[in-house]
From TrEMBL:
SUPFAM superfamilies: C-type lectin-like. It comes from the Eukaryota. This is CW domain-containing protein. It holds the Pfam family PAN_3. InterPro entries: CTDL_fold, PAN-3_domain. Residues 2-122 form the PAN-3 domain.
Length: 255
């Protein structure tokens, strides 16, 4: 997003000798770049995550040009300035290697663009994912011995004990991760007398087919659930959703 303004408060930066168009491409492709400032047609200044905290947008800085990242859910640039409808907009950048989410928030007020930063890191044995503007940490938790198999209310309680909630996949990437963790548990957590371990997933049936109550409202219900053949089996209330086979890719329901 390109607007008028000049850097005001910052701790560090670096300059590159490139055309403005190339500067835009470089920043867009650099996950650490949050903002660039056009010094001339062949020179720009680059600011990385955490380095710049405010931009002067007063009339004295109206001849300056800056660009910063905002994530769009559309296939093309928005027709209106996002600040017309909101005083704050955020850019989320997922660092999968470090399992961290970098959030940059831009707030416009009184001739100044203020920038705030935050880092979300997930606990061990969980993976971070982005749902719209929300970061979630997904993991599989095992019932403690000797009750390695237990019911859905106990599964819900176990998630809450770990400061979480039962959830389901919000997209195919989350589903693939959940399945991979479940399949890994076949080798690392299998108590021996079971052929495989199953896992509970968010959803308790109400009356009618495909009608469920959920603990977690952020995963779009059953939109990304992959059902076993002829499932769900039941259309009355009180049936819980689970994966019946850790080596399979399908979801079923059980009382």
């Amino acid at each position: 997003m390109i607007i008028s303004g000049k850097p005001k408060d910052f701790t560090d930066s670096y300059k590159i000798l490139e055309s403005w168009d190339n500067c835009l491409r470089i920043c867009r492709n650099d996950s650490n770049c949050v903002m660039i400032y056009k010094i001339s047609d062949t020179l720009c200044e680059v600011f990385q995550f955490g380095e710049i905290t405010s931009v002067d947008r007063s009339s004295l800085a109206s001849d300056g040009v800056i660009a910063f990242k905002v994530k769009s859910s559309f296939d093309q640039c928005p027709s209106d300035n996002p600040f017309y409808s909101s005083k704050s907009i955020s850019y989320l950048n997922l660092n999968e290697t470090e399992n961290e989410l970098y959030n940059t928030t831009y707030t416009y007020s009184n001739g100044s663009l203020d920038i705030q930063y935050s880092i979300t890191k997930c606990p061990n044995d969980t993976q971070i994912f982005i749902r719209e503007q929300l970061a979630v940490c997904i993991g599989l938790f095992y019932f403690p011995s000797p009750n390695l198999c237990n019911n859905q209310p106990k599964a819900s309680a176990l998630c809450k004990e770990n400061n979480g909630t039962l959830t389901g996949p919000a997209n195919s990437n989350e589903y693939a991760y959940i399945q991979a963790q479940s399949q890994a548990s076949y080798n690392t957590s299998n108590p021996g007398k079971y052929s495989y371990l199953t896992y509970w997933i968010d959803g308790v049936s109400l009356s009618g087919k495909y009608n469920y109550a959920f603990e977690d409202p952020t995963h779009n219900g059953i939109a990304n659930y992959v059902w076993a053949e002829n499932c769900p089996l039941y259309q009355s209330a009180g049936y819980c959703l689970y994966n019946p086979n850790a080596k399979g890719y399908y979801i079923s329901d059980i009382e």
